[in-house]
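INFO worker-7 received task bundle
INFO bundle size: 2
INFO processing item 0
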Amino acid sequence: MKKITLLLFVFFSIISSSNAQQSVAREWNEVLLDAVRSDFARPTVHARNLFHSSVLMYDAWAIFDSQAETVFLGKTFNGYTTVFNGIATPTDSDAATHEILSYAMLRLLKHRFENSPGSVGIMQEIDDLFLLLGYDEAEVSIDYSGGSYAALGNYLASEMIAFGLDDFSYEQFDYPNVFYIPDNPPLILELYQDNTGIDPNKWQPLAFSTFIDQSGNIFPSETPPFLSPEWGSVKPFCLVPEDLDVLNDGFDCFVYNDPGPPVYIQNSNEDGIDDPYKWHFALVASWSSHLDPDDTTMIDISPGSIGNFDLANYPETFEEYKTFYDFSLGGDSSVGHDLNPSTGMPYVSNMVKRSDYARVLAEFWADGPDSETPPGHWFTLMNYVSDNPAVVKKIGGQGSIVSNLEWDVKGYLALGGAMHDSAINTWGIKGYYDYIRPISAIRYMAGKGQSSDAALPNYDPHGMPLIPGLIEQVQSGEELAGAGDENVGKIKIFAWRGPDFINDPETDVAGVDWILGEHWWPYQRGTFVTPPFAGYLSGHSTFSRAAAEVLTRLTGDPFFPGGMGTFDLVQDDFLVFEVGPTENMTLQWATYRDASDQTSLSRIWGGIHPPIDDIRGRIIGDKIGNDSFDLALEYFQGTLSNPTVGIENSINLYPIPFSNELNISNPKNERLHLELYSLEGKLVYEVDVFQNSTQLQLSSLGTGLYFAKFIDVNNETVFVKKVVKN
């Protein structure tokens, strides 16, 4: 039975078939990845789960290391202090680490996935591993003062759970949207209704008869809401206040590394293709024409022909975008690598049908059923790279070889931090700019008409640009014209025909043909179509580039082991919603960055993102990946010393949520004025805060969300924190 799991379980043909002993951290990470696959597909939520789990596993190891610093235990992390009074040095530090780590992971994973749609199977897998490791779940104490490592693991998890209720993800309310409301009405997919009444610069919800999410779960709503538009306020790992802007588009949006706006639609004065907005979305339509298995166009996908693009050469101007991406033929302007650095020989040509390559990429890097979402994909990739016997486990390629456990916990911390902060950064941008997806933009413009020639029928400044052989107007006598020529003059696009043309995905293909532009589809399942959140920026581009940087830094080598990673595909046995590929083929990558760049291109061929969503995501991902690894190194080397930066990080409000009393810890005795505002913006309480500790009696306040605004002696707002009253 075919599945689209990314099949990263057998990701590379270069991976050894030997079953080397895995670390306890690896075993728990595999259980977590299975839990993610069984849960609702929420990249933001699972990036957070992967990071918090990585912190627990790293700290369980770092406790007994003579050099390393913990991240969370015994530290103040993002305003939350976890007290640690120490524990006796064990005679067997590995056994103690295993026990602390296992109890911590057991408790955290059971808490995080207790309400998952796949909770029964998840809980069983957690219990099975825990029992296999020889531990007793009845050990529930968090009092480690007597030297119990089980209790210390329970305590560590309990503190992470408490921190998670105070990190502005609103986990305790199932990660809701507090402020965000979409500007556009839903696009009812099965009706093919007129879509010209929307704001063409804003995200549009999609309405399904049945929506099946990226993990294969039937979603309880037929119109999935925007996932995590307020995620920018979640507490990060390596993101810093200097890179944060609090912007307002109806509510305060926390935006790190603001890339500026995407391209907005222009009122074209003919020649609509000169409008960057129309060019970007028309390119998506153009690449859709590459998805016909009967197309015999051949391309070389070996590392000798593709990949090897330097960050400094990414496009910035519209003219540079037009040079970087090949509008007609697909792909980018990368030139490949001259030699395999491992063998010293040129890479052998790998000729495949472009239609197979484009379709495979769209599904291979997607988030289809049984997916661990993009953050989890890269954990799986790291695990299988780590299994390769050619990998020398030296952190950064330097120093002494480390144990499997040390390699895993350090790699997971750096990678987890990068994935978590990529989610915070990307979804903060998504929530603020709230940018449209191709399915809405293309159907909108096609419904408006054409924007190339005012002398032709159906001209509109917001219409599609006419491109011979790709985007044209329906003529009388054509099949698309209709029985009474009712569609004459409308926009037609030469593109993938869509899920309506597939009855049996085991045998059918939709193919490519002329279709009405108002009926355009991305290359996706008809029960999924497009992820339920704004396009700009691409999460895939940000996650993937950040992960590629971490793996490059961790291994000390930008290249895959042996100079090339590969994945073999069998004819007619990989694609999910239509049959394919038409021939056996092998995907190949020289470097982690090449794989990341291919991920980005796959989202264009899949009809999910225009180029404007891609490049700025890659750039931000590059920064986050390197910043996360740099910060992780400081913990590894014990050089961080847990500095406190700025007023915000010195103030702690607890407990969150609170009932009647809210405590404020102010260890620096900063002279501040606190104003407490309701969700409606009404000032409900104010007080001066300048003592080391202040307790506020707030029993008169109703339950709900409040904003605590801190104002300094210069009457300037220095920061705002969200608090929740039960």
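INFO item 0 finished
INFO processing item 1
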Amino acid sequence: MILRREEIISRLESELKEWDIVIVGGGATGLGAAVESASRGYKTLLLEQHDFAKGTSSRSTKLVHGGVRYLQQGNVALVVEALRERGLLKQNAPHLVMNRSFVVPNYDWWHGPFYGVGLKVYDILAGKLGLGPSRFISREETVERIPNVEPEGLRGGVIYHDGQFDDSRLAVNLAQTVHEQGGLAINYMGVTALMKSGGMINGVVAVDGESGREYQIRARAVVNATGVFADQIRRLDEPRASRIVAMSQGVHIILGKEFLPGDSAIMVPQTEDGRVLFAVPWHDRVLVGTTDTPMKTSSLEPKPLEEEVEFILRHAAKYMAKDPARADVKSVFAGLRPLARAHGKEKTSDISRDHVLVVSDSGLVTITGGKWTTYRKMGQDTVDQAVLVAGLEERPSVTENLTIHGGIAGAKREDSLYVYGADAADVEKLIVENPYLGERIHPALPYLKGEVVWQVRHEMARSVEDVLARRTRALLLDAKASIEMSPVVAKLVADELGYGKEWENSQVSAYKRLSENYLISG
């Protein structure tokens, strides 16, 4: 399926005068709602102001999990729902979701009885969708599974299983799935106003970020799934609407594989801010995070705070025999969580990760909170609400067993093209037809020139950033190497889109400015 943005815009202009459901926001929540809506047969349009998963949804800890911490907090219902959704996502996107073993080291200096009994409860709650039983392991097995674990005071550990995935790759596949189900998903199309008739919302005004053209788009229901920008959209409806989003910043660092050479991840059960901390193998690197810092302003490019980086390095050093230093950090990135505001909760780490639906007097449906793991259920609940608001014919959800685009079992993870799932064979065919496209773009990363061509033709990549930050994960895996890749990527994208040298140069300059936030000073 070729996804060219020009063709999608043409369809927007010619096909429909009124949509059943228009969804604003192309992150996990909006994409989940769009797949849900389109797969039920509703006329569905999704509009994203930048690129799919530009914000929070490309900056997660890359885990599909029930949330051991939520179990400890007593939120059993959320854990049960998330464990079920974890199993469904592994079933529906097996090329991107994998089983990862996690080890909780047990040291003299902390007491962790919960992580024995509690993880057994975790297993039970997962039921037939479980990924494997938890068990206590000896000091020797702990060291074997985590060769770089800090040995001083180590007693043993607990091993359990959870899911791991690639967040922005899943987002791209969900956008493709929307189109396969008959809907439209468009990036770089920002909503600037809400239209009303008789006091009720009946559409949106959107501006094409590339052409500058304005569109008035009628809809029977409008869904606000814009994450940390949800309150801004709500104020297009009600200028004095109260805030319903509390923002929390999570920061991660990327280290070389030598800091966690085994296949198991580390779960640190207790940090100074009350969160757990993960060190997880990911794309031949190690991802360590995350923090929980309350923030007041929303941004598409949040910046890591110096104290957050030091926090992660300090805690990682407690559990790694080889302590990571600033010079070892290949990339650092920040994301903003859109938490549903809770009265009486002083710390964002205490706010529930449940999702919340709010319907305004004029019919705007807003969804906030939640997390990647439960994106499908969030989409289902959102569409159920939108159907009621619009008076649409009720139709059953089919997404529990809907294979996401690219979904194929048995992906060979030693082949870097595995993230394309069922599309990998077509990417390889493209390379066979033009051997130049089989060349690596940079020796430090596995990405091939042919992948860029594929991403522009089939995955709606429109810029160097789209390719290096989200279609590939070069920016997160090695920010410096990604900057060095940018001129080659710019030429490949420009050739596909018909742009000239001036566009290439401006793209490279813009990407270098963006990437500075991902580099860490020594």
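INFO item 1 finished
INFO post-check item 1: The longest strand covers residues 245-256.
INFO post-check item 1: The chain has 16 helices and 18 strands.
INFO worker-7 idle
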